[in-house]
Amino acid sequence: MYEQTGDGSELAAEHGMDPLAAELLGLAPAGRKLNSRELLVGAVRAFAAHPLLYVIVGLGSYLPGGVIDLAYTLNGQVSTNPLGFWSTRIADTIFTSIGFAMLTHLTFDVVEGRDVSLGAYMKPGLSDAFSAFSVQLQSGILIVLSAIPGAILVLIGLSGGGLVAVLLDVLGGVLVFVASVYVYLGYSLALPAYIDSSRSHRKPPSQALRRSWSLVKHRRGRLFLAFAGLNLVLFVVACLGLIPVGVAGVFGETNAATGMGEISATSQVFLTVWGVICQAAWAVGGVLLSTVAYSQLGSRPRGVDVESMVEVFS
């Protein structure tokens, strides 16, 4: 028996579906309130079920770009060679798109208690990579657009002087933060929404964005606390990882010729490797949290074309 806990009422309403039929299909509003603690615990449990798979896919998403970045960094060309910069960005874009799609498929199966294996996610990861990139690109553009009004206020404040300018800077900064976070949370479930639809009845990425926005309505506060808690933990871990290197005196070595401090080759290697690890951790954590949240709010029955069923019962 399939379990459906999400709110798919927008699908029923769109097609004028009878409320009773919608309830039988599991599309009626569930009224489920997100719990930040439950989301974090659910994400941790999903990771603990198959940690090696998450580590392999997470690191694999950023390792190619990290290797390219490290090669150019050790040659002292990271800031001067455009080829090094863009090749790293392109590698990150390609492999993170594949990795994010794989991680989302993996998390859905883990949450649903299905058997998982690394090889099983290569094909869906590749087939959904472009759409995963499209979803992230569209949501990123919308987030940037939402921050424009606040950024304009900041620029106006910087161009002036006095108390009014300071107030404009503060107001603009707050507006940028609030607007960007509000829109980010609204589209934070777009990737799992798309992957979910691709398993039954593939829909364009724009529909996944709309579904995400609908699902998180009136739930942004709890979702914000969950993402804030995750990012705080990962930030602390990232900072703690730098302590041993700092204590060992690897950072801030002095160049005998110039008398100025510089970062040693050892530091460059460590920073690149640690950066890849931290990026992978943030990616895995974000996908876990968003997919677990989506599973609680909007997951549809596996292998069932919900849209077609809605039309049948309309």
Task: Record the SSE blueprint.
Elements: H1 9-14, H2 19-24, H3 36-49, H4 51-74, H5 82-111, H6 122-127, H7 129-159, H8 162-186, H9 190-198, H10 205-215, H11 220-240, H12 243-247, E1 253-254, E2 261-262, H13 265-297, H14 306-313
Antiparallel strand pairs: 1-2
Shape: globular
Report how far the terminal alpha carbons are from each other: 23 Å
From N to C, what is the helix and strand string? Answer: HHHHHHHHHHHHEEHH
Strand order of the largest sheet: 1-2
Q: From the alpha-carbon coordinates, what is the Rg to the nearest angstrom?
A: 23 Å
| Poorly predicted runs | 1-31, 301-314
Average pLDDT: 79
What is the total number of structural domains?
1
**What can be said about the biggest beta sheet?**
2 strands, antiparallel
What is the helix tally?
A: 14
Strand content range? under 5%
Question: Would you kindly provide a written description of the structure presented here, covering whatever features stand out?
Answer:
The protein has helices spanning 9-14, 19-24, 36-49, 51-74, 82-111, 122-127, 129-159, 162-186, 190-198, 205-215, 220-240, 243-247, 265-297, 306-313; strands at residues 253-254, 261-262. Strand 1 and strand 2 form a beta hairpin. The longest helix is centred in the last third of the chain and has 33 residues, at 265-297. The model is unreliable at 1-31 and 301-314 (pLDDT under 50). Helix 7 (129-159) runs antiparallel to helix 8 (162-186). It is built from 14 helices and 2 strands. With 314 residues, the chain is mostly helical. A two-stranded antiparallel ribbon has the order 1-2. It is globular. It has one domain (32-309). 73% of the residues lie in helices and 1% in strands.
